[in-house]
Design a protein that fits this description.
Elements: H1 3-24, H2 26-29, H3 38-45, H4 51-62, H5 65-73, E1 76-78, E2 84-87, H6 90-135
Antiparallel strand pairs: 1-2
Helix pairs in contact: 1-4, 5-6
Length: 138
Amino acid sequence: MTAIETQTEKTTDVRALLKALQERYAVFRDFSPLAIGIDKQLFAAMPEISKKSLRVAMRNHTMATRYLKEMEKGTQRLNLDGTPAGEVTDENRLHASELLKERFKKQAEQRKANEAVARAEERKQQKLLELTQKFGRK
């Protein structure tokens, strides 16, 4: 198996795990702020999952824009069963807000860069057309 195939398989495993968690638990489906240490609850409920896969899946889930937005406005962390598991602190909300601002800023910069490249390509094509019309065979 090549490194690319192995990476693709791992990515698929993580996506499948996240999908399974979202189907099984409303807190994942709704992107609710999760209890600190929820991984222990998950291992108890699903002992067959690997620590590495869960770690990567949790990172993907908690870094998702939707999760960060919920953290930004959330007040209560939740257990797997949806029961309260502590507060979302001001520090947690601020961290989520900063991550979102940074992400949106990068996306805006990327969009502007893409637009600049597209405009440059359009100008190039227009110039080539003008030159073809000017110097082309008649």
